[in-house]
Amino acid sequence: MSAVGISNVAKYYGKVAALDDVSMTVQDGEFFGLLGPSGGGKTTLLRAIAGFVEPDRGEITIAGKAVSNIPINKRDIGMMFQNYALFPHLTVAENIGFGLSVRHRPKAEIAERVRQLLELVRLSGFEGRKPKQMSGGQQQRIALARALSTNPKVLLLDEPLGALDKKLREEMQFELKQIQRDVGITTVFVTHDQEEALTLSDRIAIMNGGRVEQIGAPRDIYERPRTAFAASFLGTANFFEGVVSGRGDGVTRIELPDGQAIFTTDEAPAGARVTAAVRPEKLLAGPVGAQGQEGRTNTIQGRVMAEVFAGNSVTYKVDAGNKPVTVFVQNRTDERFGPDQTIALTWAPYHTILVAA
């Protein structure tokens, strides 16, 4: 049984569809990411699961039970907000135990549950402090412990790491994932951060304009995106538009507007206009005619427009037939390509992915 079921859910604000016939399932124990731009529908969907937004049509279930007529406090969810929403006048222990207190649980039970959660989030000994005395990362863990205090069936996280600086956010990604694994709770989280989605998610739903573009494991979506939007939003992609001129030996030939051609293992009928995506790290850059370029099915030429050094890698912007192409090159050798130098870009046909425009 799925922990969360979403079936044909729609929500309109006037003529604008915040959610447009959205369907998906989240399995028990899964860490499920909702990724997309502002206005994509991800936060509206999370709020609909929580009960803050009532869908205009469709059904949402939690543990197989429809929740459309169930109030927020009866849905058996825990929720953590981006700004944490901690009570400044309460201690750490009182914040964590707040949900149990309002349910009038015995004091001994609350104390024991708070102790367990403080140990889980590695804050034992801080129970008497106030939130303002804690760092951003510690506040994040307090909010997480509070969301888990009532043993909910589902944990909902709204931009859980958005308030942290980059270094701390990266550290907390691994910590949050480990805590979720330790507890085993089904978790749905909203993010607009690609790296966060890739690091945390078992599966991702990419949302755009209130609709689902693609659902799948992070690696599957990254390596085989179905749409141009999915390819560009989860990572970086180069796009080539052309016309299919034939197929043979297991590859499809695509003629580009500048007269060059590229190849893909994906199939498409002859004469079809197609859009192909290639990840920047799949491209190899080298001097034109350099030894070792022969035998690579895809080879195009371009002129270096810019170079950006990032320590462990170099990013090149290349003009390939009046089309900008981005190339990521690992910093493994002393080879560099200067401005206006003509270079060859090569890659395997398998890494040319046909996508819906």
Largest sheet: 6 strands, mixed
- Could you state the CATH homologous superfamily of the largest domain? P-loop containing nucleotide triphosphate hydrolases
At the third CATH level, what is the topology name of the largest domain? Rossmann fold
User: Could you give the count of β-strands?
Assistant: 20
Order of helices and strands: EEEHEEEHHHHEHEHEEHHEEEEEEEEEE
Radius of gyration: 25 Å
Report the CATH architecture of the largest domain. 3-Layer(aba) Sandwich
EC number: 7.6.2.11
Pfam families: ABC_tran (PF00005), TOBE_2 (PF08402)
GO cellular component, one term: ATP-binding cassette (ABC) transporter complex
Family: Belongs to the ABC transporter superfamily. Spermidine/putrescine importer (TC 3.A.1.11.1) family.
Features:
alpha+beta; single chain; 6-stranded mixed sheet; Rossmann fold; 357 residues; 9 helices; 2 domains
Describe the protein in words.
The chain is an alpha+beta fold and 357 residues long. It has helices spanning 42-50, 92-96, 98-102, 107-120, 136-148, 166-183, 194-200, 218-223, 228-233, and strands spanning 2-13, 16-27, 31-35, 57-62, 65-66, 77-80, 154-158, 186-191, 203-208, 211-216, 238-248, 251-255, 261-264, 273-278, 284-287, 298-309, 313-319, 324-330, 342-347, 353-355. A hairpin with a 3-residue loop joins strand 16 (298-309) and strand 17 (313-319). Helix 4 packs across helix 5 (136-148).
